[in-house]
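User: These chains co-purify. Model them together.
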Amino acid sequence: MLIAIGSLTIMGLVLGGLLGAAARFLAVEENPLEEELKAMLPGSQCGQCGYVGCAQYAAALAKGEASVTLCAPGGKVVIEALAKKLGVTADLSEHEEKGPEYAFINEDLCIGCTRCIRECSTDAILGANKLMHTVIVDACHGCSKCVKVCPTDAIVMVPVPVTLANWHWPKPEVEPTQSKPEVGHAH
Amino acid sequence: MKLFPIRGGVHPEYRKEQTSEKAIVALPMPRMLYIPLQQHVGAPAEVLVSGGELVKKGQMIARSQGTISASQHAPTSGRISVVTDVAAPHPSGLPQTTIILEADGKDEWADLPEPIADPFAADLQVIRDRVAQAGIVGMGGAVFPAAVKLNLGTQYKLDILLVNGAECEPYITCDDRVMREYADEVIDGARIVARVMGAPRVVIGIELNKPQAIEAMTKAAAPFSEVEVVGVPAQYPMGYAHELILAITGRETPAGKRTAEVGVVAYNVATVRAVHHAVRFGRPLITRVVTVSGRAIREPKNILSPIGARVADLIEFCGGFSAPPAHLVNGGPMMGEPLPSLEVPVVKGTAGILALTAEEANNQPTSPCIRCGNCVTICPGGLSPIEMAAFIRKDNLETAAKLGVMDCISCGSCSWVCPSHIPLVHYFNYAKGALKEQELERRKSERVKTLAEVKTIRVEKISEAKRAAMAARKPAPAATPAAGAQPANAGEAKTASTAEEKTNA
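Assistant: Joint model of the two components:
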């Protein structure tokens, strides 16, 4: 009985120690934060942040080299999520919240070159060679990559219209009447 | 009948005396009617008419589409003037697609579907179809398509159909008048609905501040053993279905769940009356009773208005304004929303139009929270308004959501009770909208991610195939093997262009 308990205890201790040592000395170096950050980004590889794609931006963020305010298609929601994850305060003062936008093709100007179709990372543009193209609004996330490649400036970004379906009440603006005690009031 | 206590609640001044003794009067048919395609929860109806077409009273002019939707019918005979965007009776005043009907004054009925002779022997599906065809929606304010609700009986075991005659909003008396003047129709409609739902009992809940309605309904219910009229304490928001069910049955509906989960389904009195009209006479929902009240109205009235009459028509019928209105409200003073203008139409969910004087509304400036806790005590949802508002003020919507802001029913009791006049419910309305928007954005970003991944994979496959083809043609040194690993960048997209074009074409 005692022998059994003793031998098992020793085996446990030895094997546990081995595992502990292995975890310490043979650890694979990886940054789980990078993966998590990548998952938070839109993943459309638009490159507006100045990095090649979302993965590169996530890597820069994880190293603390990039600001959290660079993702244009992600907007305020993504900025805030990133800031929270990284434990930093997002400086939204420079970030201009444009609200969601989508690409619109002026069909009179479109020559059917298909460049925008190739550029679009979400397959939101429909069309064919020498035929005019059009944008599937639901699939467009407003990265504006297509605007840059259009040779005839036929594409413009337009704001997603406010409708009864997406309207909501604004935040109430309240100024409490006595928010500050009166300081320096002479006797 | 033993009643159960409800949580929270307030006792605002009811101010119903302005209209409670005013019998329902019909509005003279206005020359123009504005019928929005969406007057209900769900998908807007699909328009069936175009400008210049002649229609008869009761003719379907827009058909429900999708699982949750409701049809619209012409409230009178006349000519369709145009189908266009018109400001909605919604605080934003945003436009929505609306059918404009020019009345011809003849008020000629179309060929209506045959009355269902004996709704207590007829096939249930026939009644369900009839209710769907009549475009009936919940007229208590939730505007949920009644026909969709009728199907709940097939999914849940229901034992009570609750007919909601509580009408707890101050000023509003339209349900009170309907119960007093058309008790038999309400009872008949309720019995039909109960039969379709398979509910063996019908309970009609009416606040005790409406004794004449209770009397009329009790009398009308007397011949039917399964129907019971129950007087419930006048305590706002008793008319909220979850509260009324709690008061009558003691069953509490879980957060975010339907009342059918606890075996009860609630219908407003006006809704069951509309079912009676549809089943017994084949008539669609083209009118409703609207209370027009408030001290800025010269002669407050209960008006039987065709759907689509402008609010201005109703106010004119009441003799116009006797004082400049400080607030124009669509609905009651507790939950109603500001009317963007008088040019918006009466819709199926319009129970009241209020024109309040500044004195009546008694708006007070906001002062700092004194932590009295009154809002916590009276919240019928058992939430903590003081805390939620503090987090929302600091834009911490996530914490507000954890505290249950999405379970807030916007009854406004907290704002009403707050001695510092903090617009608590405004914060919650904002937070609920903003959180819903965030959820939509999150879903969109997920879809975008999938689309981008699919495209990357496809582009890779195409370039792979190309490389293979090139290698097959030129047997000499093959392409660099490392290229395949990178995701779609500009260079690869270019090599893939021809194949891409074919796919897109």
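Chain A has six helices and four strands.
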